[in-house]
Specification:
ten-stranded mixed sheet; DNA polymerase, domain 1; elongated; about 350 residues; 12 strands; 11 helices; alpha/beta; two-stranded antiparallel ribbon; single chain; disordered C terminus; TIM Barrel
Length: about 350
């Protein structure tokens, strides 16, 4: 049996062409597009302002596959983790994090990851494929529903910090961002979205040129090349800190937006004065702010351990004294493996 194409893989222009070629008025494409992306319908029968004959015609030619929540977990601190089943039965994870009057959706962009960061659970999974734009948008839609149901207000923020490297799925991620921010679709403000990367300089520059108005965060974790390469092999493959810094300076030159450095502090790896000084020097070279993050263990090997709280406080003080904006982010969702670095699909595909 031939699989019907996913109608959400078609742009508005492509849908318009399809309608014209099949003798329908062009405005029908806009109506269908609105049902798909603003109202997020799951069946053509829900498209009540188009005729039954046209709905049947669309159903004969297209499908509307959506993600499914395979497993829902809620932490004692209110954090929600979803095991998200995709259209081919593969599974990724997404997280909804509450904080005061804000809720942040942490969404995935790839099934698995190819970067091999040593401290990250996702890196232990083979990268199987990129997520499509609709699979990314669906995670946001589900997070918005859960935010309204459990916290009484719409979703306020989105971070691409889930499974995978967003800038290695560049086209689909940017297509999803366009859908999330377009007034023809979800209509969220771009400034409420942050793309987080381990550092892909070529695509940081491309993103700067295209300027989707989103924020940019970089998982840095060390400003010393040898240490960063040891824990993040992507550092060497992408030209090291010099090449990364050059792309970030280009980003700021083009967008005038500060970069956020995400920085895990590990015992015995980057918890010394040399590492602190290197971070201060690096952060001064481009307008930026630093998020210090508690490390969340992913197994019992002991290779990576959370640094002493005193070290975190020292980092914070030295950065602040140097005039660099710094926050210390306490982990949430640890009891359900939903904290930073802990996302790892524990499901097999059917």
């Amino acid at each position: 049996m031939k699989t019907k194409p996913d109608i959400r893989s078609f742009s508005l222009d492509e849908l318009t062409d399809f309608f014209i070629k099949n003798g329908e008025k062009p405005f029908r494409a806009k109506q269908v597009y609105q049902w798909l992306w603003q109202k997020n319908v799951r069946t053509f029968d829900e498209m009540t302002n188009i005729s039954k004959d046209l709905r049947q015609f669309l159903d004969a030619h297209f499908s509307i596959p959506h993600i499914k929540i395979r497993k829902f977990q809620r932490s004692t601190d209110g954090t929600i983790k979803n095991a998200v089943e995709l259209k081919d039965n593969l599974v990724v994870e997404s997280v909804l994090i509450p904080a005061n009057k804000r809720t942040t959706a942490c969404v995935s962009s790839q099934v698995g990851c190819s970067l091999d960061c040593k401290f990250c659970a996702t890196a232990r999974l083979k990268r199987m494929r990129n997520l499509t734009p609709d699979e990314i948008v669906d995670q946001v839609v589900e997070a918005d529903k859960q935010s309204r149901e459990y916290y009484g207000h719409p979703l306020t923020n989105i971070v691409f910090m889930g499974m995978g490297e967003p800038l290695l799925n560049y086209e689909n991620v940017m297509n999803a961002v366009e859908k999330i921010t377009s007034d023809k679709a979800l209509g969220m403000a771009a400034r409420r979205i942050t793309i987080s990367t381990a550092g892909i300089p070529k695509n940081i520059r491309r993103m700067a040129d295209e300027n989707p108005k989103t924020g940019l965060a970089v998982s840095l974790h060390s400003a010393i090349d040898d240490i960063r390469t040891q824990i993040m092999p992507v550092n060497k493959r992408q030209g090291g800190l010099k090449e990364l810094l050059s792309s970030l300076q280009y980003w700021y030159q083009k967008t005038k937006q500060k970069i956020t450095f995400e920085y895990l502090v590990f015992k015995g790896i980057n918890d010394d004065e040399k590492s602190i000084k290197a971070l201060v020097d690096f952060a001064k070279k481009v307008p930026s702010k630093v998020n210090l993050i508690e490390y969340n263990p992913i197994d019992d090997t002991g290779l990576f351990q959370q640094a002493d709280d005193q070290v975190l406080q020292t980092y914070k003080k030295v950065l602040k004294d140097a005039g660099i904006t710094v926050t210390l982010r306490r982990s949430k969702g640890q009891d359900i493996d939903a904290a930073c670095g802990q996302l790892a699909n524990k499901f097999e595909s059917n």
